Amino acid sequence: MSQRYPWPDSRRAALCVTFDFDGESPLLWRRRDDPPDDVAELEQRRYGPRRGIHHVLDVLERTGIRATFFVPGWIAHTYRSAVEEVHAAGHELALHGWCHEPPAALGEMELRDTLTRAADLLAEISGKRPVGYRSPSFKMSPEGFGVLSDLGVRYDSSVMGDDRPYLIGDLVEVPVDWATDDAIYYRYTGGESRPPYGANALYEAWHSEIEGAREAGSLVNLTMHPWQSGRPARALRLRRLVEAAQEYGDVWIGAVGDLAEHHRETGRHAGGSLDVPTDTLGWPR
Question: What distance lies between CA 68 and its chain's CA centroid?
């Protein structure tokens, strides 16, 4: 049996509650060359920064946890007051591109420029430069890790190579998983082949993920979007989920940046911890 990962406070497993606060920015990027004639999906996505974010912040306040918000620069510019509320509530702000651009869709200089622009704005809002990044749609390029490191970013949370933190080059990777992304359950904009799952279905699935993590000594990294998980019934079930995790008493719950620093200081020295060189990430040749 592999050695247990040394989670903070000697806990048995870990839970990160994170939000990709992207609003309509993914649609603006995806349809930049052929904008649609209707506003239906734009308005649906605008629910996040207008209303959903307040339901989310209420959940976090009532459960007393600190979360991480990955914020595109365009959202911070367009909905600045909402992002300021997130910061004022004590949550971590991290990078998510300027307008939700996947790194593989940009050249290295373009990626550097968009992230610098976004980092400057988030630093203006929070008083410190963001140290974390999540790639839009979990699509990451091998070259992107080097750009992040050059910009002073200390961790990434975009890929799925382990269920514990590990190193990719100079960055701590705090891995994600499609099974713990709310879009798989809730995303419905009118053209999907099935209706969205109910809030209870997601609760049961994610509660099982937490149970599995406690058994295996691993990480559950929840990825949510305020325009989806910020709807009232869904926010209520999220609160119940966090409360259930808290009741176990052996699950560390905190921001991604805090876990990344723990790994840099302590976890990387644990037996079995991965250290992946960036030049091994691409397709084998």
Answer: 7
